Amino acid sequence: MIQKVLHFLERYFLRYMFVVKNIGLIILVAMMFLTIVDVFGRKFFAAPVTGSYEVTEFMLALFVFFSIAYTQHKKGHIAIEALFIKLSSKAQALLDCAVYLISMVLSLLMTWQLLVHAKRIYLGHTVTGVLHLPIYPFFIAAAVGTFFYFLVLAIDFLRSLEQARK
Predict the structure, then answer these.
(1) What is the Cα–Cα distance from 49 to 72, expressed in whole angstroms?
(2) Overall number of domains in the chain
(3) Tens-place pLDDT, residues 94-139
(4) Structural domain span for residue 55
(5) How far is CA 76 from CA 24, 39, 68, 161, in A?
């Protein structure tokens, strides 16, 4: 049963996680170009890009939320293993299960609260100060990134669960 759920998640959701990660990379490149244009405009033409600070803030947030799932998938997050490696493989798997389960709950709570906040901002018609961009789509996008993080955590949880059963 666990193997079927794991296969389903890996087959269908990891593909979309890579798409979200690639969107994050495109955002990062766009943010770099915006910063370059803003610096050159400010330095050489005394004409900075209007609203570049606001746009850069949103782009950075989107980059972080869109890349967190991929970082988890590649095990790129910082882990302290000093005591962990001294445990048996079964104990390591059980501890991994506990950590992944707690992380899954927290990521779902984050996703939910980002969506609740997006709704509140939408209903309040909150916009940015300079460009008057609506803010709620960025919170929805952050919720999508956090949900993909949850899915990768679920895959890792199921893998650890299988390791613990062995």
Answers:
(1) 35
(2) 1
(3) 999 999 999 999 999 999 999 999 999 999 999 999 999 999 999 9
(4) 2-165
(5) 16, 32, 9, 21
Spatial CB neighbours of 45, under 8 Å, sequence gap ≥ 6: none
Along the chain (166 residues), what's the average pLDDT of each consecutive run of 10 residues?
84 90 96 96 93 95 96 86 82 92 98 98 96 96 96 94 86
Q: How many helices (H) and strands (E) does the chain have?
A: 4, 0
Question: 134: alpha, beta or left, given left = phi > 0 and alpha = psi -120 to 50?
Answer: beta
Contact 68, 142 (CB under 8 A): no
Q: CA-to-CA distance for 110 and 115, rounded, in angstroms?
A: 9
The count of other CB atoms within 10 Å of the CB of residue 145 is 28
Task: State the number of CA atoms in the 13 A half-sphere of 90 facing the CB.
Answer: 2
Burial class from Cβ neighbours inside 10 Å (0-12, 13-18, 19+) for residue 68 reads buried
- Token pair 């460009």 is at which residue? 131
Measured N-to-C along each axis, helices 52-73 and 136-165 cross at an angle, to the nearest 10 degrees, of: 10
